[in-house]
């Protein structure tokens, strides 16, 4: 359970400014939704918070430690060891079975295969996926694949989970089921969650919502 | 929620005592505001007076709870009509929000801040309703969903209006 924070973050892509002094603070164990219109900079802010992008100016902090000044290798290790990710289209590895996909962060972290699969399997029961362990991503429905991606994001018990439009490719009922599982699992583990969505019904699963507009976080929406 | 038509609908299902009607009303329709017994019996009295229900067999004993009420053909016709008639769509252009935005622009007040504040209030309520869904049963979920979809529609309107504020300002300020 770790806090995540952006302080006055500025980032441009070439001549195009994406973030113009964005600040947001997510408390340890909190679930915060970042909302905003297309092109507002919400995904860019998430990528900065997750140490994927490095801002041109401003600071990113995780668990009280500044991370935007770390080297690429250090950030890569931080992401692998402390962060979980869920993206819009699941992005499962098609050559691997569902349980191997869930176990992937553990395998990459050096956990032996049998132990990693042993940790991955309980997630199938927990997320209503029992019996699908050996399927490949092409044999899963969109909702099933996204639940596998959610299990993969949480299996290593990350301090923070970053989810970018995790239900964007799902119908609304399936999307809500995935969000319900995401919130329950994150709360059970005490994982801090930063969620990007344009969908207010999905954002309503978070403890708090913030709006990004023109590269800045709208402070009025902080409750 | 209209109490008379709801009680009438419950009686369409089967003849019932006032106590049973209150129990079912509170279970499905009251959402935290139980129907007072006084209102149950006064409503039933009016429905009897209007010929929509009649008092059926009276069980031994005293008190209104001994009476079993039965719907009449007239009452059943009313239930049928109520169920099949769509509810009037609310004209959104007359909503409080619209009036606030237009007045704010006319008075050169910060309309966007008002809308942002309204958005925050809507999102807070949506968060509460979502928590009710997560903790509640299917009835709670369906009622919360109804509120959520309406709030979501308002949010779409707020977002679109924010994007149109400059144009609207020119219209209302001439």
Structure overview:
The complex is a heterodimer of chains A (223) and B (174). With 223 residues, chain A is of the alpha/beta class. Chain A has a single domain, classed as Rossmann fold (3-Layer(aba) Sandwich), CATH 3.40.50.300. Helices cover 35% and strands 26% of the residues of chain A. Chain A has helices at residues 42-49, 72-82, 98-108, 113-120, 122-126, 142-154, 172-189, 200-203; strands spanning 4-13, 16-26, 31-35, 57-62, 65-66, 83-86, 160-164, 192-196, 208-213, 216-218. In chain A, the strands form two sheets. Chain A has a six-stranded mixed sheet with strand order 6-7-8-3-9-10. A four-stranded antiparallel sheet of chain A has the order 2-1-4-5, with helices on one face. Chain A is globular and about 45 Å long. Chain A starts with a strand and ends in a 5-residue tail after the last strand. Chain B is mainly alpha-helical and 174 residues long. Chain B folds into two domains: 3-84, Winged helix-like DNA-binding domain superfamily/Winged helix DNA-binding domain (Arc Repressor Mutant, subunit A, Orthogonal Bundle); 92-173. Chain B is built from seven helices and three strands; from the N terminus they run αβααββαααα. Chain B has helices at 3-13, 18-28, 37-49, 73-84, 96-106, 111-135, 138-173, and strands at residues 16-17, 53-58, 67-71. In chain B, strands 1-3-2 form a three-stranded antiparallel sheet. The longest helix of chain B has 36 residues, at 138-173. Chain B is elongated, with a radius of gyration of 23 Å. The model of chain B has no long low-confidence stretch (mean pLDDT 86). Chains A and B meet through helix 7, helix 8 and strand 9 of A and helix 6 and helix 7 of B.
What's the arrangement of secondary structure elements?
The complex is a heterodimer of chains A (223) and B (174).
Chain A: E1 4-13, E2 16-26, E3 31-35, H1 42-49, E4 57-62, E5 65-66, H2 72-82, E6 83-86, H3 98-108, H4 113-120, H5 122-126, H6 142-154, E7 160-164, H7 172-189, E8 192-196, H8 200-203, E9 208-213, E10 216-218
Chain B: H1 3-13, E1 16-17, H2 18-28, H3 37-49, E2 53-58, E3 67-71, H4 73-84, H5 96-106, H6 111-135, H7 138-173
Antiparallel strand pairs in B: 1-3, 2-3
């Amino acid at each position: 359970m770790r806090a995540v924070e952006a302080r006055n973050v500025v980032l441009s892509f070439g001549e195009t400014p994406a973030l113009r002094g964005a600040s947001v603070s997510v408390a340890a164990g909190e679930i915060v939704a970042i909302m905003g219109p297309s092109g507002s900079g919400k995904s860019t802010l998430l990528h900065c918070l997750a140490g994927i992008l490095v801002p041109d100016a401003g600071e990113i902090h995780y668990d009280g430690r500044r991370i935007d000044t770390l080297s690429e290798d250090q950030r890569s290790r931080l992401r692998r060891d402390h962060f979980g990710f869920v993206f819009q289209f699941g992005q499962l590895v098609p050559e691997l079975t569902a349980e191997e996909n869930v176990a992937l962060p553990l395998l990459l972290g050096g956990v032996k295969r049998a132990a990693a699969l042993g940790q991955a399997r309980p997630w199938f029961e927990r997320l209503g996926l029992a019996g699908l362990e050996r399927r490949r991503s092409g044999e899963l429905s969109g909702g099933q694949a996204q639940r596998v991606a959610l299990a993969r994001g949480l299996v290593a018990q990350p301090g923070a989970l970053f989810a970018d439009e995790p239900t964007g490719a799902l119908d609304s009922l399936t999307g809500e089921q995935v969000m319900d599982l995401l919130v329950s699992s994150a709360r059970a583990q005490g994982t801090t969650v930063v969620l990007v969505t344009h969908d207010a019904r999905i954002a309503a699963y978070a403890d708090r919502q913030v709006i990004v507009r023109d590269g800045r976080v709208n402070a009025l929406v902080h409750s | 929620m209209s109490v008379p038509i709801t009680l009438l609908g419950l009686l369409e299902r089967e003849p019932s005592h006032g106590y049973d009607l209150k129990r079912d009303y509170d279970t499905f329709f009251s959402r935290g505001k139980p129907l007072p017994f006084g209102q149950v019996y006064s409503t039933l009295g009016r429905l009897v007076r209007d010929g929509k229900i009649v008092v059926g067999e009276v069980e031994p004993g005293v008190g209104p709870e001994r009476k079993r009420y039965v719907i009449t053909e007239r009452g059943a016709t009313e239930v049928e009509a109520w169920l099949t008639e769509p509810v009037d769509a609310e004209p959104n252009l007359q909503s409080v929000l619209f009036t606030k935005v237009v007045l704010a622009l006319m008075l050169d007040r910060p309309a966007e801040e008002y809308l942002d504040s309204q958005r925050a209030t809507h999102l807070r309520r949506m968060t509460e309703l979502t928590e009710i869904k997560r903790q509640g049963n299917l009835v709670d979920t369906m009622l919360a969903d109804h509120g959520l979809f309406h709030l979501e529609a308002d949010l779409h309107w707020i977002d679109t209006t924010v994007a149109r504020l400059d144009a609207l300002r020119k219209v209302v300020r001439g």
